[in-house]
Amino acid sequence: MRSAKVLVATVAVALTGCAVTVSTSESGPAGPSPRLGQPVSEAQLAKWNIDVRTPDGLGLPPGKGSVADGKKVYDAKCLACHGEGAKGGPVFGAMVGGIGSFKTNTRVLTPGSMYPYAGVLFDYVRRAMPMNAPQSLTDDESYAVSAYILHLNGLMPANGVGDAKTFTALVMPNRDGFISDTRPDVKAERCMSNCPPISSTRGKK
Amino acid sequence: MKLSEKMKELVESSRRELQGRESKSHDPGRRRMLGRTLAMAGAAGVATQAGAQALEVPPSAKEHGRPMPANEYGMPSKFEAHVKRRRTDVFVNRQNFSDWSMTPLHQQHGIVTPNGLIFERHHNGVPDIDPDKHTFVIHGMVRQPLKFSMADLMKYPSVTKFYFHECSGNGLTDWLAPKSKTVQQTHGLLSCAQWTGVPVATLLEEAGVLKEAQWALAEGADGASHARSIPMKKLLDDALLVYASNGEMLRPENGYPLRLFTPGWEGNTSVKWLRRLKLGDKPWHLRSETARYTDPMPDGKWRQFSMEMECKSVVTSPSGGMKIKPGTIEILGFAWSGVGSIRTVDVTLDGGRTWREARLEEPVLDKTLTRFRLTVKWDGAPMTIASRAMDSTGYVQPTVDDIKKVRAIVGFVQHHNAIFPWDVAASGEVSNAIG
Fold first, then answer.
1. Which ipTM did the prediction report?
2. Which in A105, A191, B204, B261 has the greatest CB count within 10 A?
3. Contacts of A200 (CB under 8 A, 6+ apart)
4. Which domains are delineated in chain B?
5. A135 — contact with chain B (CB < 8 Å)?
6. How many CA atoms lie within 13 A of A128 on its CB side?
7. pTM, 2 dp
8. Would you give the DSSP letter of residue B429?
């Protein structure tokens, strides 16, 4: 098939005399790139460029916010969904506790127990919270409310202040909790007869 | 009553029912329950009722159909109104912005999911973005940061490919005990479409990838600015910037006007409403790839960046909520693999003791839903049916027992690709038999 296509393409080029490149790939695009991208500068992208590389804090902006200021922001803009003291509210569950729960059968996932780096919390607050008005908080407010939630999890003192330096330095409980993908981690056999049942626990509960 | 009057009344009552909003015989719930049963019992039913009554000319053959409007977007028949995406019925989500809805796999004919039935997972609702105002940017570790308009992106030579698309959370409610009733609820975070777009590699080449770049952050323009770190290797291999599915522009809920598409990988890495790719030398470790979309492992650990969707299959008919009758039944289902194509599918009727190979329906494509079929005789004795797929790498779909040996199944766990059994009771009622 492929050689036939090349032949057709060659004939077409020969007939028209055009010096075009003809792609015969089965999966690639059918022609050359028109290269229509417009140059843009990183400065022009400043408002979009909000990501934080959380292990080393690259992208954490200037500014700061205290635990005390964070409580004010939280009570005004977060409490309605997340509840008093981040213990869980009408819309979302608790954001405090769970540290040490991962070796039990009931893992409790909160920013305190789960996030490996404090920058994860700042990044998420800044990009996505509050849910009804994302990206409405100032950087100082995002630092403050993140510091408050870290404080509620026992990870910052009451007089603490969140900023790029403190958040990068803070060692979170789950920092070393992640491993990389090593799948396929399960090797099953294609047994056709006299096989074990699908479930060994079926009917034994 | 004269025959002609009786006929007239019959026609009128049929018309009233067809035009009425409260159609009894076409009640969606009832149809949902009966649809497959009737289809299965059809042959036997015809045999026993044959000759009881002469068939009348249907009203549709005795009147105008609806006239053609000057222009319209065609919709399914009102009698198909029960075929819908549905949210989970295992629990009630207290908000519907970060939520999901599932594809009715048991009502899907063929391998293509219609656009209006492709599953949804949003992190803060569905934006409806004006394509004329949408800008896509490539920046970070590139020689020249670039921005693209939708109009310009659509001038690039495109590719069109069939691929399945599955959320890594598909089945997370049903690992150790039956929670969901239907296959839509147990497996419906799965769809398959023909996707059209531009290879990401084409645009990366234009921006000029610096040799230090190993990862890229893909970020959406939605209210969650959902973002994932994607290895450059995947972006340069087969990732697409997709703007169309099944021949038309994407639906808003599937990323209109532009999404990333990472074939065979967990759904959320195919970032919808894509507005930028930022290249870097390391991953970002954001909430969506630490606190979410990670898998609990023994010793309190979490597995991260588990992108590939491993080989899986499920019987879609008979499946949970259906009712079958003894006789000849056709077992139907889907198989798929994020790392290749489907090589075989086996079906068991006895809870896994014995298996027989099903027929695969063409086409059998890489990273695409594959249909399997097996016709069997059911004598009315209770049975437990399930399917087991093997992909082109030789990987065999495991049981939950197999997976439990190496991973921690605690809470809502992602990447459930285990063999999924359905019980068929002597009554013919089919129910979820996981666990």
1. 0.88
2. B261
3. B401
4. 86-303 (3.90.420.10), 312-432 (2.60.40.650)
5. yes
6. 22
7. 0.89
8. B
